[in-house]
Each structure stands twice: as C-alpha cells, then as structure tokens.
UniProtKB/TrEMBL annotation:
Organism of provenance: Chitinophaga caeni
Signal peptide positions on this chain: none
Entry protein name: HTH araC/xylS-type domain-containing protein
Phylogenetic classification of the source organism: Bacteria, Pseudomonadati, Bacteroidota, Chitinophagia, Chitinophagales
Keywords: DNA-binding, Transcription, Transcription regulation
SUPFAM superfamilies: Homeodomain-like (SSF46689)
Span of domain HTH araC/xylS-type: 232-328
GO molecular function list: DNA-binding transcription factor activity; sequence-specific DNA binding
UniProt xrefs under SMART domains: HTH_ARAC
Length: 328
C-alpha cells in the first residue's frame, strides 16, 4: 500500500510503502501484523488481523500538525469505521463526498475506487477501529440476512458508493465488543473463531441501529459528540456511586444535560435506562462477587446498594435463575 502525506498547502511531507495484509485477506488461518510509522510530524501504531475475507484493525495516531494522507493500491472493501477518540475527515472524490468523524461515531463505507483520502488535524491521540470485508465475503453474508444488509449488497454489487447519510453513535455494546477484540487472549484457531464472531456481531449491531433509526414511530435524538461524551461521563458517575446513586436531577446537573436529553440519550447509547443500567451493573458485579468465598452475601448486598438481603436475593434470582447462595 502506497502512502503520500501532505501538509495544508499540499506540499509532500513523506512518501511511504506499508506492507499490509491485503494480499492475505482470504487466508484460512489468522494472520496478524503490527505497524509503527514515525515521522517528525506524526506517529502511528496500529495492528491488523485478517482471515477468510475479514480484516480487523485498530490503533492510534499522534499528529503534530494538520496533515492529509492519501493511500492507493487498495482493493475496494466494505469497511465499518469507528472513531473512538479524536477527529478525522474522509474524502471521496467520485462522487465528491466528505465525511467528518468525531468521538464515538461510526459509519460503513464502500468506495469502488482504489484510493483513500483522509485529513487529520493536529491532535494528541486519534483512536480508530475498523472491520472490513472483501466484496465477495460481504455479498455472501448479505443473502437472507436482513433488509439492511441486502440493500447494502445491492449497492455494492452495482459497484456504487455505499455511505450512510450521517454517522451513527458508537453504543456501549459496540464498545464492549471492540474492547474484547483488542484484549482477546485466545490463540490461533480459537482466536480466529472469536474474532469472526465479534466482527459479525458488530455488523449486526450496526444493521440493527440503522433499522431502528428508520422507524418513524421511534424518532432518534440527535446527539453531538459532546453530548455522547457527557452521557459516558454519567455512566462513569453511576459506576462510581453504586452504593449511593445520584438522582436524575443531580446527574443532569453534573453532566450539563437536561433531563430529557439525559434519559433519552442514555437509552440510545447504552440500550437501557439510567437506573436500569445501574440495576444490571449491580447484579453483574454481584455475580462475580458471590463466587468469592471471602465475601458474605450480606456484605455484597450492602456494598452494591441493595436495601436488604431479601431484595438482593430476589433481584439476583430474577436475572440469573438462581439465588446467590445456589450460584455460590
């Protein structure tokens, strides 16, 4: 893959070649590769993993100046792009389109032309994650797997540009999957199986999100990147105050959001209400703790903010089908 890096005035700063895994995309075994790029104006670290027509990659970029990056000699792929931190603008020349990403945003892109063009502003850490499928793999998966995938496949089969009209919000479930991929401890065949399942799960979650947003009876609240950061901040507050939870009024005040946007936005990002999330988090913590013989059930109930051992036991049984004592 050829890289040409330019500054704001279009002056060429660097020309580079990256040995990528593109020629190994259909490998039946998992192939992993790490990359480090260092220049005076930027540093990048990223990892690629590929097998069976699927490519996963993630990494970070530190830029000391605004730069333009042009990549060529790429086989067109269908890519799910997730921006976890920072800003990036992707440009497509034919037809002319620009897509600006900020924190916690994602989209799906198929560019039939074998080039990518991105603009990066000066920033301490751009964090990106991506899942890409070869055209053959994607068209095979799309058959009989839902309206959204079949509509995507129709566009791709015609070799036309595929791009959502606007970026979608990276949800908590998506972040959990991304983190599980980045911290996967499996090896060899088991790792390949795990990565494949998670790549497909991310694609399914994106399709579900697109379908939900297309329903007229379920209008979607438009959340800015700043709103999303505030909602994640509220999630952190909830986790740090499990024993003595704050009210919606207090959470709204601390986050700088009105109650309506907090409640609807939280449900949109995390798929649960504020206090439903708190309830589930308590029980997930309890599930781990009940296996620790050094912790008493009464102590667990108290530490997680349940009003009584009976309340804790009933909630635990309702969620997991067993009492805390039976699971222990």
């Amino acid at each position: 893959m050829s890289l040409v890096i330019k500054d704001d005035t279009n002056a060429v700063l660097a020309v580079d070649e990256i040995k990528s895994n593109y020629e190994n995309l259909d490998s039946p075994v998992l192939i992993e590769q790490d990359h480090v790029l260092e220049y005076e104006f930027a540093k990048a670290n990223f990892k690629e993993m590929c097998f069976d027509g699927i490519l996963l990659g993630y990494g970070s970029v530190n830029t000391q100046a605004n730069i333009q990056v042009e990549a060529s000699e790429l086989d067109p792929m269908i890519g799910l792009m997730f921006i976890l931190n920072g800003e990036v603008t992707a440009s497509i020349r034919e037809p002319s389109r620009k897509l600006h990403f900020k924190n916690y945003q994602h989209n799906i892109i198929y560019n039939p032309h074998n080039e990518d063009h991105v603009n990066l502003i000066q920033q301490p850490e751009l964090q990106v994650f991506g899942v890409a499928f070869t055209k053959k793999k994607f068209l095979e998966m799309a058959v009989g797997n839902g309206r959204v995938l079949e509509q995507h496949a129709e566009i791709i089969d015609k070799n036309q540009l595929l791009l959502l009209d606007r970026n979608q919000v990276v949800t908590y479930k998506m972040m959990e999957i991304i983190n599980s991929i980045k911290h996967c401890n499996y090896k060899d065949g088991l790792k390949k199986l795990f990565l494949q399942s998670k790549a497909l799960e991310l694609l399914a979650l994106q399709c579900e999100q697109i379908e939900q947003h297309s329903l007229p009876q379920d209008p979607v609240l438009r959340l800015s990147p700043q709103d999303i950061e505030k909602i994640y901040f509220v999630r952190d507050i909830i986790i740090n105050h499990v024993q003595t939870p704050l009210s919606l009024v207090d959470l709204s005040r601390l986050a700088g959001l009105n109650e309506f946007k907090l409640k609807k936005g939280f449900k949109q990002v995390f798929g649960n209400t504020v206090f439903g999330y708190l309830h589930d988090y308590r029980l997930e913590m309890a599930q781990d703790w009940v296996r620790d013989p050094s912790k008493s059930l009464t102590g667990i109930a108290d530490e997680l903010g349940f009003s009584s051992i009976q309340h804790f036991s009933n909630a635990f049984r309702k969620k997991f089908g067993l009492s805390p004592r039976q699971m222990r």
